Amino acid sequence: GVTQSPTHLIKTRGQQVTLRCSSQSGHNTVSWYQQALGQGPQFIFQYYREEENGRGNFPPRFSGLQFPNDSSELNVNALELDDSALYLCASSRGGAYNSPLHFGNGTRLTVT
Amino acid sequence: SQQGEEDPQALSIQEGENATMNCSYKTSINNLQWYRQNSGRGLVHLILIRSNEREKHSGRLRVTLDTSKKSSSLLITASRAADTASYFCATDANNAGNMLTFGGGTRLMVKP
Prior knowledge:
The complex is a heterodimer of chains A (112) and B (112). Chain A is mostly beta strands and 112 residues long. Chain A has no helices and 11 strands. Chain A is globular, with a radius of gyration of 13 Å. Chain B is built from no helices and 11 strands. Chain A binds chain B through residues 2, 29, 31, 33, 39-43, 46, 53-54, 56-57, 86, 88, 90, 92, 97-106, 108, and chain B through 1-2, 4, 30-31, 33, 35, 40-45, 48, 50, 88, 90, 92, 96-105.
């Protein structure tokens, strides 16, 4: 399945954070979502074959990487209090329409 | 921003009863998907219905899609306490490439 690390993280406003994800075997597309408390997930960006191929309404201080082994990272610079959320990674089979997302259990980020 | 709106936001029923959740969306879609989330954990894919389908079944789940009304419903029959979770609809807009837009979710509680 999809694994994410760490499970919980506490950072201070202005700091930088890196979250990690390992995709499900055979999946070459990874997407990241932000889920604020009590709300639905919001799409941050998607990577396919190590290239960003789509981005939601998030500022450039949210960036990502996808590695050849289909692991990926989400980096957030200059953390703000509103960045406190559950960050979810999801993998899927790229290039295949109607391919459901497989989610990890997320990283709970708290910014103080 | 979230395209989908789920109705109701919260639902409490007794075990054995049926639960119906509704979802409305705004743009043309390639497919609509339903996901389940247990208390702050990752989302689990339940069912996907393509834009040219009207109804789909999977076990105790029944999903309908009305593209003329831009709405969908999820019916869980003979509910169990273990069905207690949040349920989200997500749309894959035309040409979005599986970059999903989620609704705000319905929080279902099934009382034993």
